[in-house]
Amino acid sequence: MARLLTDLATIARAAGLTVVEIPGWKTRGRPGDFNPRGVLCHHTAGAGDTRRTAEQMALEGRPDLKAPLAQLALSRTGVVYVMAAGRANHAGKAKAFGGIPAGDGNELYVGIEAMNTGFEGWTSAQYSAYVRLVAALCTAYGWPATRVAGHKETSESGKIDPGKMSMPDFRADVARAMSAGTDLRRGATGDKVARVQNALSLTADGSFGPATEAAVRTFQTAKGLPVTGVVDTKTWAALFPPASPTPAPAPVTPNTSEEDELMALQIQHPTEKGKTWPFSRAVWSIWTYAFNAAVDARATRRIVEALAQKGAPLTVDETKQAVKDAVTEVEQEAQA
Which domains does the chain have, with CATH numbers? Predict the structure, then answer.
């Protein structure tokens, strides 16, 4: 069965998210079955963060993997790019998870590629949008939050995405967003109303009356939201924003010389053996490219170990050679 999820853009917009549609997405997909039962979360492992990044995933793919590479992409600022309604190459073989059987992950999951290196942490804007997007998909398709997985949880080849994100915490945030459910307005009662009243420093009697409506209007005005007095999806998200699990580092202004740039920013990355080596700003883009180009986890780990053995700081040429040697070694092993 080859299903087309032609309502993806509508679902994301209804969640209050900014949506960009890559032309042709409603009929785009890979050949083969697609009957998704959950959501699979990824990071791109690259620095790209634009529409062009999404277009590459939607239309061009990679040398080793044909497009589309996911149904959805998510920028660091929380913009949702809709890339494909059908099957996409994002999951590979999947282990059983959350009630979803083992099998062809591309058939079983809707894939979201978050534009993130996996080592930089998650801004509040991106993390909050990730939660809202996944919650909206689960609500629309009738899936519980337990059917939300990270690629690192289903992969049979050692994937690590999404990096620096606790999936149990993420699922809990998705479940909370789903529980927000329908809009709250005057006349509503119950625990959700009491929670809103607590957040607005009101007496939490669980009854949405004139005082609660007035407080909601004041809050919406302060946050630049449409002033309706109704606690809709956007207002709920502003009242109870999910906390980013790992703060992103502050931007670093590039230096002019390569030598200065090599020393501008040290990012510690742990290897499998527990060692660390400092990445410099100049080699960071090379590392992310190598990570993205590595077909499997063996190549990625070999690159990290090779760079660690070289010591630091490394020049750009030394890093390039270490990456080349590691990838060549893994390719030769695969052919043996």
Answer: 8-179 (3.40.80.10), 184-231 (1.10.101.10), 258-335 (no CATH)
